[in-house]
TrEMBL record:
Protein name from the UniProt record: (apollo) hypothetical protein
Gene Ontology MF: a single term: metal ion binding
Keyword tRNA processing set for record: no
Organism: Parnassius apollo
This protein's UniProt keywords: Metal-binding
Amino acid sequence: MNWLIIWPSADGVRENLPIAFRKRYSKAISTIGCFEIQIEKTSNASHQAATWSQYKSYNTIKYLISITPDGLINFISEEYGGRTPDSTIFEDSGFLDKLVQKSIVLADRGFKNISHLLEKHGCTLLRPPSESSNSKPSAEEVLQTKRFAAIRVHVEKSIGKLRDFKMIGLHACFLDNVVTIACGLVNLQNCLFSNQV
């Protein structure tokens, strides 16, 4: 089902750009996130350590997922242990090889220290403003965060559709294949986002 996970051309993405993206994110080619799947705790101590997710507080397998602005899953990485930082997966997964120059990639705050990697490829990273525990965000930062959250929800909806497949997580030894099949099936469903949204 790999053939159902395609990387469309920049022109193809722009032709299907939802209204919500057109004003501020018209050059966005991808919204990325990490998708974690809970797994059983293994008896091997090194595997336990590699798959422990501090964020989830249980053992997980993690994937980098990318969707186009209109909701098509256009990239899914191989599996990584839940302990692997998002930035490491981003650099190691082959995602950067898919990008064309002048592309914009949207990511959440978890993707720290990846701007320089995108800049080497002639691309730009957009993230919500950083939060500081010592200072109150400005009105502009609050507005930017809200706008960004409205766009970022798209990748969360795609991940939600993947979670609807109960087979994910049941077959740990074939998990990469199962996740690829689920991504292909999500892409076969109706478009997540109407052009009128």
